[in-house]
Amino acid sequence: MGTYGTRAAAAAAATGLFAAGALHVVWAASPWPLGSAAEFAEVVVGVPEDRLPSTGLTLGVAGLLGAAGGLVLARPRSGALVVRAGTWTVSGVLMARGLGGFVVSGAGLGEAPEAFRRWDLVLYSPLCAALGGLAGYVALRARGRG
């Protein structure tokens, strides 16, 4: 894959990161697509309702996801060291979350509800690993630019 492939990977990763950020903005005010905060806490976050993250923390995650998307999207056009390091960091954090989720949920470790572990194995962890892999690919392919 040449420059086009790197740009396509960057666009795909950034789209996923921006979409995840947008979902976190929605989740700061609503349990969508679930019907209640208790169900949302169990299925999406894997904690009891009284341990849901605060609105501020949820919006902070949304901001970090948006920044991550911007870094990955900027990488094919930038040789800046901070962008390169940021793109590798995005990749590492997402791969750690994705692979860690497979291990923890797959082995039934921790106290997360079964509904969360199921979704973690079929959606959350694979999505994180895929986005992390795309970000890593972008960082690797664009390495010679700076």
Key features of this structure:
146 residues; mainly alpha; 5 helices; globular
Plain-language structure description:
This protein has 146 residues and is mainly α. The protein has one domain. The protein is 75% helix and 0% strand. It is built from five helices and no strands. It is globular.
SSE inventory with pairings:
Layout: H1 3-27, H2 37-45, H3 55-74, H4 81-107, H5 114-141
Helix pairs in contact: 1-3, 1-5, 2-5, 3-4, 4-5
Number of domains: 1
Q: Estimate what percentage of residues fall within beta strands.
A: under 5%
What share of residues is helical? over 70%
Q: Give average pLDDT, whole number.
A: 92
Number of discrete helical segments: 5
Shape: globular
Main sheet characteristics: none
Secondary structural class: mainly alpha
Order of helices and strands: HHHHH
Spatial gap, N to C terminus: 20 Å
Q: Looking at the chains present, what oligomeric state does this protein adopt?
A: single chain
Measured on Cα atoms, how large is the radius of gyration?
Answer: 16 Å
| Quantity of strands, as a count | 0
Uncertain regions spanning at least 5 consecutive residues: none
Gist of the model:
This protein is mainly α. It is built from five helices and no strands. It has one domain (3-139).
